[in-house]
Amino acid sequence: MVLGSGAGLALGVLLVYLQPWLGSISCNSLPVYAAVNESVTFHPSSHMPFQEILWKKQKNKVIEWENSEFKAFPPFKGRVNLDPVSGNLTIFNLTSSDEDEYEIESPSITSTNKFSLYVIEPIPSLTLTCTLTDQNIIVQCEILEHYDSHPELLKYSWDCPSDQCKNNSAPEMHFDRESDHSQKIQCTVSNKVSKRTSSIILATCFPSAGVSRGRFPLLLSVAFVGALVSSLSFFCLAKSRR
Fold it and tell me: Which string of DSSP letters, residue by residue, matches the chain?
């Protein structure tokens, strides 16, 4: 009991000590998603005309408007635009290094305006591959190229006549080997900025069996007739030479 009381007292003292610091943590950062090489615009909220504006990326200046003059800072020179009326900041030709937290500072703004920018590579091409087991056909939806641009944002969806395609968000599908092989299986992979789709016919998951069972007796009969005709021709030719 003494140990428990001591631990509780220590926790209380720690919370009192950390309270000012905990209160300064901001959870008002708005996530914004944009594609590499594209542009993005941050829209701050303000009900008053702007007199001066400073946009920052963390502690680094992006662009400043003061005394009716604009000044952009590296590496944003030549690829940023600031609207002094709305306060909107637009960044062009985005790169992965632009990803960070942005904030506007101005006497006209009384609330926090922070934006967490995520710069994402568009999804490259997809492919569907098959794996056969004794019982199942496993169809996998794969991105062809190496892709590590926020993979946590990738979402998978499937479309096919079978019920298992509904509400399935896994990167692979399992079908019974006795399923309808003529059905088309479609996979879509998406993130916040792009989407890719690929499809496959389930029958293509099986290796070529060559001549089908239905045609084999017909081909066998044709071969037999051909051999018989050749034999008769040889017999007649041999008889005529006597």
Answer: -HHHHHHHHHHHHHHHHHHHHHHT----EEEEEEETTS-EEE----SS--S-EEEEETTEEEEEEETTEEEE-TTSTTSEEE-TTT--EEE-S--GGG-SEEEEE-TT--S--EEEEEEEPPP--EEEEEEE-SSEEEEEEEESS---SSGGG-EEEEE-SSGGGTT--SSEEEEETTS-TT-EEEEEEE-SS-EEEEEEEGGGGSPP-SS-TTTHHHHHHHHHHHHHHHHHHHHHHHHHT-
Supply the pLDDT for residue 18. 39
Q: Which domains does the chain have, with CATH numbers?
A: 27-120 (2.60.40.10), 126-205 (2.60.40.10)
pLDDT tens, residue by residue, 105-141: 999 888 889 999 999 999 999 999 999 999 999 999 9
Given a cut of 90, is residue 26 above it in pLDDT? no
